[in-house]
Each structure stands twice: as structure tokens, then as C-alpha cells.
Amino acid sequence: MRHVLSETTAHPALIFWIVAGWVGFCLLPWYGVEDGFFAFEWLVDGYPFDEDYAPAAFLIGQGEKLWLTPLVLPLITSIFALGRKKSDPLYAKILIASGAIGFGWLIAQGFGIGIRGFNFEWLKALFGNLGDRQFGMGYGALLLASAYLFLFTQGIAARGAINGDVFVVSAIGGVIVIVTVFVFFPIAKMLLAAFITEEGGYSASVFASKFFDDRLWGLGCLSGGRCGVAWNSLFLAITVGILTTVLGLVFALVVTRSGFRYKRALRALTVLPIITPPFVIGLALILLFGLSGTVTQFFADLFGVQPTRWLYGMPGVLIAQTLAFTPIAFLVLIGVVEGVSPSMEEAAQTLRANRWQTFRTVSLPLMRPGLANAFLLGFIESMADFGNPLVLGGNFDVLSTEIFFAIVGAQYDQGRAAVLAMVLLFFTLSAFYAQRMWLGKKSYTTVSGKGDAGVHPLMPNGLAIPVFIAAGVWGLFTVVVYGMILYGSVVELWGVNNTLTFKHYVTAFSVRIEETGIRWTGAAWDSFWTTIYIAAAAAPLTAIVGLITAYLLTRQSFAGKNAFEFGTMLSFAIPGTVIGVSYILAFNVPPIEITGTGIILIVSFIFRNMPVGVRAGIASMSQLDKSLDESSLTLGANSWQTFRRVILPLLKPAILAALVYSFVRAMTAISAVIFLVSAEYDMATSYIIGRVENNDYGLAIAYSTTLIFVMLAAVGLLQVLVGRTKIGRRTQFGAKEQT
Amino acid sequence: MSETLIASKAAPVRFENVTKSFGRDVVAVDNINLHVEAGKLVTLLGPSGCGKTTTLRMIAGLEMATSGRILIGDRDVTTLPATDRDVSMVFQSYALFPHMSVLENVSYGLNFSGFSKSETRDRALAGLELVGLKGFDTRLPSELSGGQQQRVAVARALVLEPQVLLFDEPLSNLDAKLRRQVREDIRAIQQDLGLTVVYVTHDQEEALAVSDEIVVMRNASIAQIGTPRSLYDAPVDRFVADFIGEANILPCTIESVEGDMATISIEGYNHVLPARGLATGAAKLAVRPSRLVIGAQDGFKATIAKATYVGVRMEYTLEASFGSMFAVHEDVDTPLEVGSDVTVGFSQKGPVLLPEA
User: Fold this and answer.
1) I need a labelling partner for A484 at 20 to 30 A (CA). Which of A524, B124, B155, B218 fits?
2) B89: which chain A residues are within 8 Å (Cβ-Cβ)?
């Protein structure tokens, strides 16, 4: 069967992409449509002759944008591949050449010619002034670019790469291109911006003067003054990393190594950071310890002292971040602590080590890579956190907020923002690199061979007591903080007028029912619906990109796989503020001009959350035995059919999880979002931050509470759905033997 | 085996009415009595889930008996945790500490046993030498092959000179060729040092090869205890007969009993064998495949239903009027054809009457 198929000359995928290329070239508007493509107003507004909406073919036909003409040639040549067999060497050559030339020319003309004609002096020198210009590419260009890309990958596959598997080669090519366009390109653009002088030239001295600025690296705090933001960030991140790791370990030990009864309740902790917008913790702390906070007032009355603003600055940010990120460390460490093979600890015990010696010489060293991992995660999260320093920072500046103020503040200095972003990126990428390269090889927790039926010993008593105290205190604190959020949302004016009221909810979410239907009169509805809409649009795209990447990483081997993996996981280590700045710098000029649209928000979510999807996919795909796909392949299915009919159905829970988590994360994100929102597309989180800046805490907290419940509902729904899909499956414990 | 620092403090192990249950309903070990003599290698053998590993872990102190008494030597250790028992164990997965070198692994237990630094080192090195891993002391476990890791695990347990040494399916992660060698090594060390060893396996051949005594377990209790020979030749019931080597269970009639010998008949074929206290009437007979004589002068009729050539011998499935049976034959050069009729008898020793009905 397969032989016959591969010998036939009509390859459906090839026909599809050639047709798609012609459609992109001849039918769809070449440039971006300002009022939105899907409004379809362009169809009745002068299409196909109006310059703004015309497809490339019509532009050329009218003698405009003649530099698009060469694009038609590879489309024509690719047709010649249609009549040929796949095994024909000319087939591969035609497709590779057509794809590469077409794609290359598309990119080259896009970058070469911008809104002011030629973008580069040497082009002007060579061809003279162009006298014409072009705007951001639209769906026509997008479709044609995709067509060229996939013609190229089909050519590569025909030459025998990855066993000639068109789907896998195309998937790899597609992922590489989109990651390059939406991760590496903006970052590179931002790095360049650090060298741009005010006149628009490039200069290393500009970079140097901004880089060696005293406000960045100053060490004044050692002598009573103020330190540079880089040191502030570094110090804060290290402290938060250590604190969250210790607390995470404490909770993990309570859950896995003690007789504590309410372990399920503790595990529920792990859901908190997922559903909580990061700055909400900061808001709750203000209610507790702020100038008019409950605790502050109580002690002020008790001791008759003046309430202080101690919270605003390093202490506040530190507490807030530790509260916010401890559950993440807990999530990591619970796996690590459980992953230490019980037989290691039992072996130590049979070798005469007592419980404390076992813990110190075996359990703890085996957890060390996990501890380092948790520390680095806390470090990255703290570095990247934007909401808490913004809400609680006071005069304590950190990199992420400085970047923001460099862009939006009175100083408007892109170069400075870029330099700050580079420093921030350097820190997080170093941590990320250390995590991947150094820890990747040192994990002791992988289960080796046939497992032993063993049980983890309990903690030694000397350890159990401090651990329980720490867990109890911190757990209680977390509960109080979350209680404050709920309570604060129904108080008239915190610390001044403590009467209970639903006023804030009414302001935010009032609804009027009129004859014409429901009118969403509340102040928050606009941003709320935008958030839902953007998050819902981003979620499936994130899941698709994530799962395909996970499939490639777990199921296929190809040259450069490690670099591929590093590249796809990289965006995890890029702080949102850096993404925000780089997207603004990269995407407000052609060829890709999407600032101010909803698309840029969706795109930023896809690439911010892609690592989550990839991880979810990898986790569940590595549980599926590879023999499943191999048997499907030997039964005559190709890799796309295998992916769709075997892997996807088995991955339903993972898909659902990736969907919900990317949805929820899109709703809680703030750092990148705050740069990318526009009047038309305002998001819930940036709206709340705006309220906080106006000291309108009541509304901000009411809105945050609503968000938390919406997301709790989403996660709860997920649990129900995933729980149900799992019923039909045999768990690994079903097959476990007790000898 | 050369002179070594490592001596033996072998002690007997005694289980008195020991029961272990997990939760309320799962009884892993049900009221067993067991005596392991000092200096002997005793194997706990049985299918998955029979309670043999739980029994072993109770000796180690990794599981605590729900009721009953466990004694090692003269000491009642029933409530002592693993740390305080003079027992060491070789784990199925070896459980070598991946963050320590081979020498550190072997020295681990010695560090907690009150030896001086130099003595700890000497003993650890002697242990490594004993298992043939001299010169591997600075390697990490991940740099060793599976067989070498196994021997490190043995050395680590041996150097403590435990009263009892436990093995939990030590060969299950090794390939077939290595298994034979390692089990011989284990047996040699055990005999040279006179160790008390309790060994868990589900492989009957392994058990027959290494043991002084075998404890066959089934459903949380002991089915039979005996030397390999007695288990093979005189199984107490169908389960043991079938678990220790293959056995054909055939229906027969006991015609007469004289003293402790009985005469049985199968389709008119008579055979004399120990009566094992049975009276005349219907009975069950267990016959090993190698004890069926194909082409005997005297015997019952059967047809060859299947013939398989496995190299060293022929394997036949025989079909008789009362059922089918499995036989082996040494003659591989003139195999019998499928469908041919043969007369099948028993060899002089071999068939055993099963006491159960």
C-alpha cells in the first residue's frame, strides 16, 4: 500500500500548499487590513483594486509594488514538481529551490522596504530613492510565506531527511520559523536598540554609557545610600529563591514524610499561584501591613506609635514574592522528595544509619538537584515578577519595573529600556542555562529499572518539629492573606470605613437589562470580556504549538534537537517585561506591524505559555509507550495519521490541561501585557493595576477576587473533566506487583 | 577465596506465628512459623504476591509484624527498627547511592558502626576485593555495569558482618548468562564465610541451585519447607509439584498398599511407589516430564500430539485417554512423528503420589 502511495504523482500536501500559495498571492489582501481582516469590510471597500486591500497580483497588475513580482516565479516553478515522482531527485531540487528563493525574497523585501522606502542606506545608494513604501504584511503575505516554507520542507523531506517524513519535517520547520519570528527576532531587535543613538545610528559608546550607569550598578547601599537596580534585583531574587526553596521543602516534607492527615488540603496550595494574578498578594499585604492596614493599625494603637510605611520597599516585595512563589517551589519539590527511591533510604537504614543520618547522608544529597532547581525557578520568577514590585516597591527599584518606567515614563528612553532588559535577560538566562545544562545531567530521582516496593521513612523528630512549625506558620499566613483578599473586596474603604458593602462589585460588574437586551454597564466588563476573548483565542493555539513541539521532542530524533528544545523552552526564561519591550520594538514597524491589535496580545501569550504546553505534552507523551506509534506506523499509517489517530486521542487529558492552563495564565499575566494593551484591547490585569495606581483598592480587589473565582472554576472544571477521562484507563498501580 | 578481614557472625532467624496485614483487609503474611538455621542459605520462593518480599522486609525491620515474634539469634527483634538490627540487605534495584563513589557506598554502613577511619577503609577495600572489584573504589555507581553494581551492593552488605544477610531478587536485573555466574558467586561467598542468608526469588531454578533449604510460599502462607531435593522429589501438593519444576498431574487408582509402598494402576499399567500414607482408591500422581518413558515395554497408550525440537532434547505433548501430558526425550536424532501411537511408562523413581485428593 505505502509503496503504491509514494509512487503516485499527486501528493495531496504538495497540491494543497501550491494552491494556498496562489490564493495568498492572487486573492487575499497582501498588506495588513487596518480595521481587522475578519470584519470583511475590505471585501466591499474597493477590493481587489484599492491599494490597501489589493492582493499582490493586482498590485503588480496596476504597476505598483513591483518588487513583489519575483515572488510569482517560485510559485510557477513549484508546479513543475507536481508531475514528478517523489524519488525523482529533481522533485526535491525544485521544491527546495522554489521554497527557499520565495521565502528568502519575501523576507528580504519585507525588511528592505519599509514605511520610508528603503530601510538601509546601502540599498538607497545602490538603487536610488525608491519613492514608494509599504506597510505591515497581511494574510496574503502570511499564506504565501507559509506556502513557501512548507514547499521547502517537503523538498527537504523528499531528499530523505527524517526518513522522508513530510509531516515531521514540516512541523520542525514551522516551529523553528514561528519561534524565530516571535522569540528570537524581537529579542535581537531589542538588543540592537541598546546601541542606537538619538540620531538613529549605531554606537557602542551609547550602550556603554547606559550600561555602566550608576543607577544600574551603583553600590551606594553599602554606605547608606541607594544601590543600583541590578543589585536590587539580584539580591531580591536570591533571597526569594532561598526562602521559597526552604518553605517549599518544608511543605513537601510534611506531605511526603510525615503522618500529617490533611495532605490533600496542602496539595491544594499548588493551585494558588496558577489562579492568582501575581500582584494580588501585594494588594492583600497592603490591606494587612500598609499604612492603614489592619495589623499596622492594631500595633499602632497598642504601642501608641506612628504607623510607618515599612512595607513599601524591599520587605514588602520580599514577603509578597515569597508568598506567591512558595507554592511553585512546593510543586517542584514534592516531585523531587517523592522521587527519591525509597529503597535508597531503606538501604541506608539496613546499613545501620538512623533516621537523621539517613536524611542527612542520603535523602538530602539526592534531593540536591531538585533543591537547586527550585531555587533557580524562584530566582527566575522573582526576577521576572512585575506586579508586586510595582504595587509594593516604593523607592526600591528593580529591573522589571525600571524597564517599564523607561518606556512609559516621562523619560521615554528605548535604549535604556533595552539595556535594562539585557541585564535582566542575562540574569534569567544564566539561571535557565544553569538549570538545563548543569542540573539536567544530575538528576538522581529517575526511577531505575524494576522498582522496589518500599515506603519513605518518616522525618527524624529533630527535623519534624521545626518543619511543622514553619509549615504551620506559613500556611496560616497564606490563609490569612487570601482571606484578606476576599474580605477586602466587600469593605467600603479599607482602614477608614470598615462597613461591609457590595459597592465595588456593583461598580465593576453591574448589569442593566433593557428592552434591547443586557447592557454591561459595569466599569470592568470591557476589559473582562477582552481578557476572556484573548485568553480563549490564545489557549488552543498555545496547546497546538506546545503539543506538536512536545511530539517532536519526545518522538522524533533529528539533528539539532537539543538546540531546538533549548529554543522552544527559552521563552520561559524571558521575563514578561522583556517580551513586552521587545515586541513593541519589533512589531510596530513593517514587515510585521501588529502593535495595538489583539493579535500581538494573543501572540505574546502563545509564546509566553508555550513552555507550559510543551511540558504538559512531554509529561504525558513520555508515558505513552513508543511501541504504540511504531505499531501504527507498521500498520501503514504515516506520522501525521499516527499523531492524529493514536497520540492525540490518548493525550486528551494533556490537551485539556494545556488548554486550561494557558487560558488561566493568559488571564493572570501582567508583565508583558502592560506594554501591549491598547485603548481598544485592555486586559483585566492592566485595568486592575491602573485602579491600584489611582488608589482605588476596593475595585481592584473586587475585580481580582472575581478573576480568582473565574479561574478557580476553570481549573475545577478541568479537574472534573480530566478526572472523568481517566476512569477508563488502567493506572500504573493496577499492574504493580506486590511480591 | 583468600584470607579476608571479613568474618561471619551468623545467627539463626526464627518466626513465631508472624502475621503482617496492610490496612484492614490485606493480609500479606498469615501466621507463619519459620526457622532459618545459622550459616544456611534459605530461599523464599513463590509467585508474585505470595508474601515472600514482605517476609524478607520483616526480617530487615523495614516492615513491622502485626502480630507474632521475630527472633534473630537469641534476641527478640520484633519491634526493633532496621537501623538497630544486625541485618543487611541487597536490594532488587541495588539501591546504590548515586552521589557516592563505590568506596563511599561500601564504607557507608561501617561509618555508623563505630570503626575507626582506617579500619573502615581497610574493611571496605577487603569487601570490594572479596567480590572481585579491587581497583574500582573511586568510580561512581553509574560508571559500572549492572553486574558490577550488583557486586558493590553485595560488598556493601557483607562488610558489616551481619547476623543475617538478605537478598531481594538480586538477579532479576541481570541478563541470563550473568545470572548463573552471580548466583554461584553468592553461594560461594555464603559458604566460605558461613553466612546466614535469606534469599527471595520467584525463579525455581535459581532457588534449586543456591539453596540449603527452600520455603515455598503461597497466598501469604507457607506451602512447604524442605531441601531442594525433597521439594522436587516429594512435593506435598499440586501447587508445589507444579511450581518446582514442571509436573504432569495424572489421575490414578491405588490398587493396594503394603507397608509404606503402594501399587497404582493407570489404564491397566501398574507401578509401585511410596504410599505417603494414602489408602486405596482414586488418587493424583505427579510425574516430571523427564520421568515419562516413551516407548516403554510396559505402559499406557498415548498419541504424539506435538513435537518440538529445542536443541538438547525433544519436547512432546502426549495425548492419552485421561488427558494430555508433557514429556521430554533425549533422542533428538530420530524424533517421533506427530500422530504416531506410543506406549508410555514411568521410570523407576520419579512419580509421586500427591497426598491431596
Assistant:
1) A524
2) 346-347, 350
